[in-house]
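Summary for the steering committee. One of the milestones for this cycle was to obtain a three-dimensional model of the protein with heme C bound, which we needed before selecting residues for the alanine scan. The sequence and ligand used are listed below.
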Amino acid sequence: MKMRKPAMRTLALVAVFCATALTVAAAVVFPNLLPFLDPTGFVSTYSSTGSFNENNAFFQSLGTNGRTCASCHVVSNAMGLSAVQAQLVFAVSHGKDPLFSAVDGAVCPTAAPGQNLNFSLLLQNGLIRIGLTMPANPQFTISVVQDPYGCALTTDASTGVQTISVYRRPLPATNLGFLSAVMFDGRETVEPLNNATTFAANLFTDLSHQAMDATLIHAQASAPPTAAQQAQIVNFELALNSAQAFDFQAGILNSNGANGGAQFLSTVPFYPGINDSLGPPSGFTPNVFTIYSNWATSAYPTERSVARGEAIFNTQPLVITDVRGLNDALNEPTINGTCTTCHDTPNVGDHSLAVPLEIGTSRTVNYEADPTIQAAVSQLSMPNLPVFQVTCNQGVDAGEVTYTSDPGKALLTGLCTDVGRGKGLILRGLAARAPYFHNGAAATLDQVVDFYNVRFQMNLTPQQHTDLVNFLKTL
Ligand code: HEC
Ligand code: HEC
């Protein structure tokens, strides 16, 4: 007979009741570890300062369009924004919530308010438009080969400055003490996060700068927030850790010797390079996640599946090819690695030193020449994005053409070697904030695993696929 998890249904019901009661009764107070329902269980956020409330500047309108940081960084979504949440807010507000400000909530800033077609990328894929100006003296030229909304590349009539529209997911404003780069392309890493001595001060500087830019851009403020407001926001964010707390199949994620959940995460040590997969081999362990190792011998099959998934993440061989920033930088066309070659920060999963990479998530089936990348991308629910042709005309890569929906770090540096590169993401609280990847191309964690299975020739069995997804759901 199969062992069943005890009292699972009762626990779930109690948690739903608590979350509902507290949010209805007192919408402005978030008790520590308040559970929020998500598609596969409950997620919660732990603040090292105890419960928090909406008096913090993070929750206040500091600009002109009514948005707050929490318009896009939602507590119940592990401080990110799920597409389902965007749909809910649209339905409840008839599209009038400030989230749907044309400036970057719409496919183009000129879009008319209230019409859901103009918000298709936000509603379907949770995407925000980011307008980035062309860098000075780039090593490449950019032209548009697919422009579904008419603002892929615009030129300011008076200044001649060109702006490129890329569409990205709000990155979670939590677990920030583990960052090695701020923003997908690292553009808010104004001070480097590569040294244990300067880490805390530089992270504070970077996040303060980020909070200022977010207020000026997303909230369309006419003046930057005060230093006191920025400090309040950053101190609030830095105190937070978020993670899945309860999984409908595996149960309470810090029971039976497991260390899932946000409270344990708040005790996980970090310093830049703590487990650098590209540094000296002696300093690196591929066993990045260890929170479920005690479940390997559990009496419950659902717990054993999660433990097997964790082991697959740490040790299953991947054949890593054609990753810009890795294969080219190391001059190794084939790297035999694991998921943890790139996701190396212990029990968190971003890169413990900044290494922006291009794994191919911005490529499109129609324009892709590399058959492996093409097959991998076709596993995804790729949003209908602009496609840019980036033609390198200087340096060792001269003549190389890349078709991409997001030129990534190259828009900051102007370098051909940076085309499409972005940071590896923190892998906690995933269940609460679908879709995945910076452009929301993976609708589900199943699609994430399908992508990697093809992209890096993992040859997963159906059982291994299930185990890996079950593990990702519990993060
Ligand atoms: C309109 C939606 C929106 C609003 C409002 C918003 N953000 Fe964001 N936020 C985003 C997007 C999109 C990104 C990722 C952009 C990128 O990577 O290029 C992001 C990224 C971040 C990050 C970076 C996390 C990381 O892993 O690098 C932080 C921190 C953050 N936001 C905090 C804030 C704060 C603080 C505010 C309020 C002052 C705010 N955001 C307002 C959409 C928003
Ligand atoms: C070659 C480096 C590399 C390897 C290997 C790798 N990843 Fe990633 N991973 C990345 C990068 C870079 C991103 C961000 C890509 C993007 O957003 O477009 C990412 C993003 C993700 C995300 C999306 C997170 C989010 O918040 O949207 C998940 C989930 C993920 N990886 C899981 C895995 C798993 C599981 C494996 C092993 C099967 C794996 N990764 C192997 C580099 C890698």
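Key point for the committee: The first strand starts at residue 29 and ends at 30.
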